[in-house]
Amino acid sequence: MIDQIQRLGIAHHFASEIDHVLKQLSETCFVHNTGDSDINDLYTAALLFRLLRQHGYRISSDIFNKFMDASGKFSEKHASDVQGVLSLYEASHLSVHGEDVLDKALSFSSTHLESIKEQLSAPLTTQVHHALKQTIRRGIPRLEARRYISIYEAEPSHNEAIMSLAKLDFNRLQKQHQEELFDLARWWMGLDFKMKLPFARDRLVEGYFWILGIHFEPELAVARRMMTKVIALTSVLDDIYDVYGTYEELELFTQAIQRWDIDCIKELPWYMQVFYKALIDVYVEIEEILACKGRSYRLYYAIEAMKRQANSYFAEAKWLHQQHKPTMDEYMSIALASGGHELLAITSFVGMPDIVTKDDLDWLFNDPKILKASAIIGRLMDDLATHKFKQSRQHADSAVQCYMRQHGVTEQEAENDLRKQVEDAWKDVNEECLHPTTIAMPLIVGILNLTRVIDVLYKDGRDHYTNPHITMKDHIKSVLMDPVQ
């Protein structure tokens, strides 16, 4: 039932009860966090492993050794257990480095699910098809809850009380999110960027969806408001650096952002003045919100993160201007920052309740392993999705071109190697989500959710944020527009 409650999106109502039960399970089902247990069916073993790993328990993957044959491969006798294989597939995505058994689990389960997916009946066929496209570990919680509600309702044995709560809770939160988006839309329309900065992307709704993927809980409205305004402005900032501004203008603009003084505005071209005033105004608003809550010390981190973002954009513009061809290492040193992960994570922490401390912000500002891994995933998935389009116009090289040049490989080889790096980075993310964590688990989960959003928005080699095709529109519609019936 814990798995169902979590996947239905109502776990926040039962957090303490879930923690209590999982703690008991970790102590009674395993011997000192080893893989020794009395669980002999694949479905239960994989489910329990996933649930405990999701909550940070360092449960050994040796639990799966009993399901392997003498040659060290998963026994083919389990292939007919579709629920068990599906459960194993989901569990394998919580692997960390050095867990060969989970690498084998992924290969075994994905191969068998692909081979039988067309032969299954509903609702199992729906679950398998979706899992192969989007795993639980990497899915956006709000979007996955919306989907699972329909799947769970189709199961004959579903619990009516839980089903009713899930629908009521989803629709109640959706109403709150709609009101928040309406308020943000008034602010965005008031800026009149569509007329004043017609070259810039109008991505407020997509930006809010992105932020909702990180924090959907009702008590985090302040963080969502801050983050949505910042991500909306950052999209425009990116377009100024990437599309519209001349090198000389960008140099002045970067200096103005580093000085962070409204008096700098008169030194800028008119279109940059429009943006600069909007940027300063948003951070004045953030300052007022923080002051009211006794958290003024956080403003420094928010502003410094935006300054770093502008610096990274300018570094890339400088490469293009100078026709510089960076090495892969040189490229990643800048590109990890320009991807915006640090900016969003810091803005998230700035807008959070008192669970965040100054030490947490200092930790985040010093490139912790989970944030770097998340940024690697974001940058590489972005580049894999967009490099061909960007090379069709004047643009600095992407990770694909830098990797090809440094390692002397073909484009396809480079793409394959970069996808392998994405998978390795996910193992770093998984490792950093296990106890003991450096900071509170809800803050770690925020960074995990940021990584999940990236996985969804850049899946299948497409940039669904810049070019919101049918898939992205469907995501937004299901989460923000259509109530659950």
From TrEMBL:
The UniProt record lists the keyword Magnesium: yes
Stretches assigned to the Terpene synthase metal-binding domain: 191-428
SUPFAM superfamilies in the cross-refs: Terpenoid cyclases/Protein prenyltransferases, Terpenoid synthases
Gene3D superfamilies according to UniProt: Farnesyl Diphosphate Synthase, Terpene synthase, N-terminal domain
The keyword Magnesium belongs to this UniProt entry's keyword annotation: yes
Domain Terpene synthase N-terminal: 1-132
Keywords per UniProt: Lyase, Magnesium, Metal-binding
CDD domains tied to this protein: Terpene_cyclase_plant_C1
Cofactor requirements of the protein: Mg(2+)
UniProt GO MF annotations: magnesium ion binding; terpene synthase activity
An annotated GO BP: diterpenoid biosynthetic process
PANTHER family for this protein: OS04G0344100 PROTEIN-RELATED (PTHR31225), TERPENE SYNTHASE FAMILY, METAL-BINDING DOMAIN PROTEIN (PTHR31225:SF241)
Protein name stated in the entry: Terpene synthase
